[in-house]
Amino acid sequence: MPLLVALSLGGTVAGCAMVESDVAGKSRAALADRGIEGVSVSVRYRDVTLRGPAELRDRALAAVSGLGAVHDTTYAPTTSAPVAVAPVLGARYDGRRLILTGTVSAVAQRTALADAARAARPAATIDDRLDVDADAATVDVADLGLFVAVVRAMPAALRSGSATLEDGRLTVAGERRTATAGALAAPLRAARSGGLDVTDNSVPGAAVSAQPQVVERRLANLLAGTTIRFDTASADIRPESVALVDRVAAVVRPAVRANRILTVRVEGHTDNQGNAARNQNLSLRRARAVVDALVARGVPRGRLVAIGYGASRPVADNGTQAGREQNRRIAFTVLGG
Q1: For the ranges 20-24, 50-54, 206-210, 255-259, which has the lowest average pLDDT?
Q2: Integer Cα distance of 218 and 298 in angstroms
Q3: Domain end marker among 55, 78, 101
Q4: What domain range includes position 154?
Q5: Which of 11, 19, 46, 230 shows the greatest Cβ crowding within 10 Å of its Cβ?
Q6: What mean pLDDT is predicted for residues 197-201?
Q7: Are residues 104 and 28 in the same domain?
């Protein structure tokens, strides 16, 4: 990491920590000045969350909301006197971002997790949503170190997934890049050896050929310069498009078998000629007709969704005949893991 970037990141973390420490201190002092006991304080930059008995809500909010250092104040009523918040740490990876969640009792713990996320390879965008609450129970130093190692390995091992640490239990879930745990194998072994109760719910991901972006690209290539055609003002597929539907089914059928969470959205579109409501209805009926045709060719209906957009999403100028022909189309969006 370039020195300038590292200094910038370090300065940002330190600056946030100083602000949060200042806001927390002033909030607790304000509560004490009003004689309010049994209300805990947690801080996310300048936003304060108070937790305590419902009957203290108005007094506590009045004490803290007026502080100049505080941006926003919320109150979470408890049914009894607050106790130390159990440390629950989480990390989610969506293929691009590492999202850190949970509550820690010290800025140093938050920094350790954020630094681990930044050290991940391949690099991921860090979305730090961790809260620092001095009243929270402290995460065991050894457990935190084991969790940090898991977080660092997630982007290399998972296409997407999550890890949580709660009460000595470490749980990992998601879609692996390989048949084995890959880069997560060593951190998970270390976690077990270190005394954590480890559950690995990650599963092998679908073959590359069944990944949504690959399937969607193949379908787009099939439709390049053409589309599934229908009789005028009808949802009946024209005979010359039957072969194209066959080719679409040949792409979708094996993909949904290989990727158990893949779904194909069949989207109907029209030009802007005529009544908008009729166009929307027609586009939906045409999308449903394509779904029916694919089901007839062996694609499970539960993996297909029909939607009609009418004339709301043109790709060409409706002012020309050529543009209107391009806008009358069926498109496919592929969703899933």
Answers
A1: 206-210
A2: 18
A3: 78
A4: 88-204
A5: 230
A6: 92
A7: no
The vertex-172 CA angle with 170 and 176, nearest 5°, equals 155
Position with higher pLDDT, 250 vs 19: 250
What backbone torsions phi and psi does residue 147 show, to the nearest 5 degrees? -65, -40
Whole-number Å distance between alpha carbons of 254 and 70: 56
Report the alpha-carbon distance of residue 56 to residue 165 in Å, rounded.
32
Burial 132-167 (b: 16+ CB within 10 A, else e): bbbbbbebbeebbebbbbbbbbbbebbbbbbbbbee
Residue that has been written with the tokens 């640490």 in this structure: 165
pLDDT level of residue 120 (50, 70, 90 thresholds): confident
Does one domain contain both 92 and 127? Answer: yes
The verdict on residue 31 lying in a domain is yes
Same domain, 107 and 213: no
Give the CA distances from residue 179 to residues 5, 150, 259, 310, 315, in Å, rounded to whole numbers and listed in that order: 36, 18, 14, 43, 41
Smallest CA-to-CA distance from 296 within 254, 249, 333 is with 249
| Domain co-membership, 104 together with 41 | no
Do 195 and 149 share a domain, yes or no? yes
